[in-house]
Design brief:
The chain is α+β, with helices and mostly antiparallel strands. About 30% of the residues lie in helices and about 20% in strands. Bound molecules: guanosine-5'-triphosphate and magnesium ion.
Length: about 250
């Protein structure tokens, strides 16, 4: 089997696409018939602040960061209907998966997308001004309907951020996995090795996990410097869990 057949990419159908009933259109554009790519994972996600911050970590500190979080968390499109706040997270697999979906998505800015690549998905997006309390325009928010991983390294980080191995059929998993030998719990932003009231169990002995996540958890548990943040591991275990994690 050609290893390039296994290239994977993360796609998010963002809240503006859901609100405007463009889900079917996006799925159709990305269908196996058009792209030759296959689904490897799919879930409806109520996006927590932790997950949003980790997903867009590279933009932390920028003027538009807060509006980007509000957008991906669904707060911008469903301010009064929190139960409607969600995205559809998908993993696609196949030859040149990353490049193919980026090409169909088009440029980040919908205005630019319409000019440079009419017909691409983001050509159907909008750009919304971000104003302060006095109404002065500070920046703009790009409501561009879809996220698609940009590079092989981004795809790996993002797929592992949104999906557990058990969300993906065993023969479609692209990254090394390992079976946990320990219990890991999470409470008040801390990792615990034993259960305490109000803690959530992330992993139990026998559960399959991304090997890189277990390395981070082990490093934190033994007081070493981890290669990634605890939140980047924990966020996916809290997806669609109890509302107190949002
Ligand atoms: P994604 O697929 O959503 O990751 O978009 P992208 O890869 O085309 O762009 P990038 O990862 O650089 O930015 C992520 C998101 O941040 C974009 O979808 C935009 O909504 C927003 N963004 C990025 N750059 C800017 C910017 O310069 N100004 C504003 N207002 N928003 C930006
Ligand atoms: Mg990006």
């Amino acid at each position: 089997m050609d290893p390039r057949e296994f290239e994977q990419t993360l796609v998010l159908i963002k809240p503006d696409a859901l609100k405007n009933s463009l889900t079917g259109y996006v799925l159709s554009q990305l269908s196996e018939f058009h792209t030759g790519l296959r689904f490897a994972g799919a879930k409806i996600v109520h996006v927590s602040r932790m997950l949003a911050e980790e997903h867009y970590a590279e933009h932390r500190g920028k003027v538009f960061f807060q509006s980007l979080l509000d957008y991906i968390m669904g707060c911008s499109h469903y301010p009064d209907e929190p139960w409607k706040r969600r995205v559809i997270a998908l993993v696609y697999q196949g030859h040149h998966a990353i490049q193919k979906i980026r090409a169909i998505s088009g440029p980040t800015n919908p205005h630019e997308a319409r000019v440079k690549k009419p017909g691409c998905i983001r050509a159907l997006g909008t750009v919304v001004p971000i104003k302060d309390a006095a109404g002065t325009v500070l920046d703009e928010r790009m409501d561009n309907l879809i996220h698609a991983s940009a590079t092989v390294a981004d795809a790996e980080r993002e797929i592992k951020l949104w999906f557990k191995p058990s969300d993906i059929p065993p023969l479609m998993r692209a990254y090394p996995t390992e079976i946990s030998q320990e219990h890991y719990y999470f409470k008040e932003n801390k990792l615990l090795l034993q259960h305490e009231p109000e803690s959530v169990c992330l992993l139990a002995p026998g559960n399959v996990a991304w090997a890189s996540d277990l390395a981070v958890l082990r490093a934190i548990a033994s007081g070493k410097t981890p290669s990634a943040t605890l939140q980047s591991v924990v966020a996916k275990y809290l997806i669609n869990e109890d509302v107190r994690y949002y």
